[in-house]
Amino acid sequence: MKVNLLERNKETGRLYRGRKQVYSRALYYGLCRDLTGMSLEAIGNTLGQDHATALHAITKTYNNFLLWNEVEYIRACDLIKDDIDKNNRVKYVEDLIRQNIRLQRENNELKKRAYVLPNRSDNNNANANI
């Protein structure tokens, strides 16, 4: 199961709220809470959300996967937890979060650069002055 947690609606710019996206983000938030000592604010910030969003996803969705018999998400959660060596759980997830934050910063920097590209006529004028 692959889901882009940060995929946004092109019209509204908001994160998609389809079941797969919501449940996948809840799984992400829940695993971060279970496997790291990070605050809810820090966990939410990794996906550009606030602490209340992370808390809501954990309490209203992640904690109800068993009740709702969401087998696919329960199995994914179990597989992820099993794959992570007990001694490296915190390091593994925090490394993923740091990588996510780094990639978000790089993406934002690239977006800024894309908007600041020099005008072609400016280059021609600069070459004419040489």
How many domains make up the coordinates?
Answer: 1
In N-to-C order, the SSE pattern is HHHHHH
Please tell me how large the radius of gyration is.
Answer: 20 Å
Form type: globular
**Strand count:** 0
Helical segment count: 6
Low-confidence stretches: none
Helical content class = 55-70%
Largest sheet: none
Strand content: under 5%
- First-last Cα distance: 57 Å
Structural class: mainly alpha
The residue-averaged pLDDT reads: 85
Structure description:
There is one protein chain. The chain has 130 residues and is mainly alpha-helical. It has one domain. The chain is built from 6 helices and no strands. α1 (19-35) crosses α3. The mean pLDDT is 85.
Give a concise summary:
This protein is mainly alpha-helical. It has helices spanning about 20-35, 40-45, 50-60, 70-85, 90-115, 120-130. Helix content is about 65%, strand content about 0%.
Keywords:
about 130 residues; mainly alpha; 6 helices
